Amino acid sequence: MKKILCTIIIISFFKLSFTVAADISNHSDEALIYSIYFNAFIEQKTKHNKEPKEKPVLIIKDKTEMDIPIDTSGKNKYKDEKNHFTFLSVFFEKFKIVNILPDTFKDFWKRNQESSTLNCVIPIENEYIFLTEELENQILLSGDSTSIFSEKLYNRFPSAQLLGVTTLSRVGFNQDKTQALLYAGFMIGPTSGAGYYILYEKKNNIWKEIGRFMCWIS
After folding, report:
1. What is the maximal distance between C-alpha atoms in the chain?
2. 33-67 burial, b if ≥16 CB within 10 A, otherwise e?
3. Domain count, the chain
4. Interatomic CA distance for residues 212 and 92, integer angstroms
5. Does residue 23 belong to any structural domain of this protein?
6. What is the pLDDT of residues 108-140, one digit of tens each?
7. Residue 162 in domain
8. What is the pTM of this model?
9. CA torsion sign, 187 to 215 to 211 to 98?
10. Does residue 161 come out as left (phi exceeding 0), alpha (psi in the -120 to 50 range) or beta?
11. Is 200 part of any domain?
């Protein structure tokens, strides 16, 4: 899969607000951020399917990851915390989105230095499956040995083809938990996917997306 560094900024000019089906009082802020992301993602991917036969299944990697952008010279200079923060800040500030607070990014960076296992309950209506290493190996060993992984995956979970496989980072928060930063990427096939850094803000006890930019596309 070839990732292309993308400088396209995607700004939401309308307010996105979703009603969570579950009792949100029982869920962490991190789970709620995941919920808001997935509700927007599912709406965007299914908006042209007026009458889907069934709600598509979400396949989520059970290990968190943080994408490190590669600059135009091919060097990985953003692996450094300071450079990575500057990289994100420039894009969000340029388009007059609320600035990333330093403590938001510091928490995001700290939480994502090591991969974590996702075990939270995400309050969304769609069924979701965590793609564990064990499940991935089972899928790889199944079916025709010449088939690529995505073909085998969708043979097992046909409705997942609409949404692909999602990778999430841990969510970083400022000290007051009024701002949150998330990295999320998805791959539907070897040449179909994208990754985003997304900023959220909490007002009147409600989390809402306030801006995002696409950091890679394939």
Report:
1. 53
2. bbbbbbbbbbeeeeeeeeeeeeebbbbbbbbbbbb
3. 1
4. 8
5. no
6. 999 999 999 998 899 999 999 999 999 999 988
7. yes
8. 0.81
9. positive
10. alpha
11. yes
Distance CA(179)–CA(99), nearest Å, equals: 10
Packing angle, helices 149-156 and 133-141, rounded to 10: 100
Q: In this structure, what token pair is assigned to residue 184?
A: 């999320």
- Residue 120 amino acid letter: C
> CA-CA distance, 137 to 143, in Å (whole number)?
12
Q: What are the tens digits of pLDDT across the range 34-66?
A: 999 999 999 988 886 665 567 899 999 999 998
Q: Is residue 154 part of a domain?
A: yes
For residue 173, give both structure tokens. Answer: 């928060």
Domain span at residue 82 reads 4-16+29-47+54-217
Copy the structure tokens of residue 48: 């042209």
For residue 40, how far is the Cα from the chain centroid?
A: 11
DSSP 165: E
Q: What is the crossing angle of helices 102-111 and 81-94, to 10°?
A: 130
Q: Which pLDDT does position 84 carry in this prediction?
A: 76
